[in-house]
Fold this sequence. Notes:
alpha/beta; Rossmann fold; Four Helix Bundle (Hemerythrin (Met), subunit A); nine-stranded mixed sheet
Amino acid sequence: MDRNTIAVSIPNDQPRVAQPVAALLTGTLIIGLFLGAEMPRRISADTRVLPRTERLSVSTMNGKKSSPIQRSVQMASGRISYTEQGTGPVALFVHGVLLNGYLWRHQLEDLSDIRRCIAVDLLAHGDTEIAPDQDVSVTANAKMLKEFLDALNIDQVDLVGNDSGAGIAQIFAALYPERVRSLTLTDGDTHDNWPPEAFKPFLAMAAGGALRGTLNAMLADKNIYRSPQALGPAYEHPEQVSDDTIDKYLCPLVASTQRTRDLQRFLAAFDNKHTLAIEPQLKTLKAPTLIVWGTDDVYFNVKWSHWLADNIPGTLRRIEFKNARIFFPEERWQEFDKELRAHWQAAEHEAAKANLPNPPLQASAELLERWNDIGRKLIAIAEDLPEDKYGYKPNPESRSFIQQLLHASGSMYFFTDVAQGRKARYDDDPPRDEWVTKGDVVAFVERCVKDGAGLIEAKGEKGLYETVNDGSLRLIRFGDLAYAMIEHSGEHYGQLVAYYRVNGMVPPESKPKQ
């Protein structure tokens, strides 16, 4: 077990269910689907979805009194149905194939004290209503989630995915990483394991036209749903899945002929090209990520949890639930919710660390930053100042525009040269005739700034405290001399700004940034 793995074990005396859903294709079951008189309760083509008030009947746990609310929002992708409960930062839960947001009822109830929990019904699932030609691929579902968050004015979410919903969550996080505050992935489609081998017979059955009959059979006899030949292998304890739960999952899928066709299109669109396409983005995903995997999953081997942990750099922990199957968020919700709480707290801690102020600059770095800042402003004026304004002066005794600029820049050598034991190369006012064109002036100002910056960098932290003879009665520290020259150049920069304003011009620093 790797150092980031935590094994969670619960005694399990249940015998392992041996066979996956492949046996749905056996002749006995397929023939039985069409023998309506033999079925205890045949579901007709016009079966209606259970009333919303019934679908929200979740038992109160831990004494909490908040209730889930089912809503829908109309968007370009369709009328998207969702259930929400609680307040606070948003946690978005994404279910997988054949199920709907009801999978997450325990999370909504239990975690509503710290999150606004939202469980969405994907395209072609639950109470979500879509057009007959709506794209229902997993990438289309990921894009729908972004559209959904936009419609609800939600900026970021703690994203949680299971089964094909985990694949959709990966695609969403890869395409819209800025929308993901944290990511939790459970057993689900990953990389090129989509669809998983054990699910391919179900896809073949659906492609062969037997989907509606199969769903009706499972609804008519719930033991078929729980059997080793159907969805039994998805559960640790399939015998504990209630009839009501099965109704809530499957009734919407046969509520109309179109609903069944939509699901058939969803199944037909399964293709690992969607997850392979986002592998490069996953490898740069920094969102704090938790990976929780059941060790007894017949569809998604635990090796895929290792693949995700190795390829998502934001992974904080990878956890294994011993003996758990794919739908453990429903069966072992207490353990899972405990891990979600811990993960969200860890993600908040990571975000707090990232938002801490940067440490203070070293003294030499701060000096260099200040020097370059006044230098940047002088260079901007040199580049912007019209040549026909070079000769402007507010009165005869004042320096002209160009003289002010040359003086503010050239006087920097009273630091750069003097700090190296040399006489400053220019007097108070550098001669105007040495820099005739605007290009000459810009190059001169850039050189004045660059030479001083290079000396500050070369001296480093220790050099700030070296003493310099600048001709005054007392030696001066290198850093203090630099700051004195920054202040001097800044004063003349202020005069240049005043010249701009008097001439009805806007200084470069005050112009709107492009």
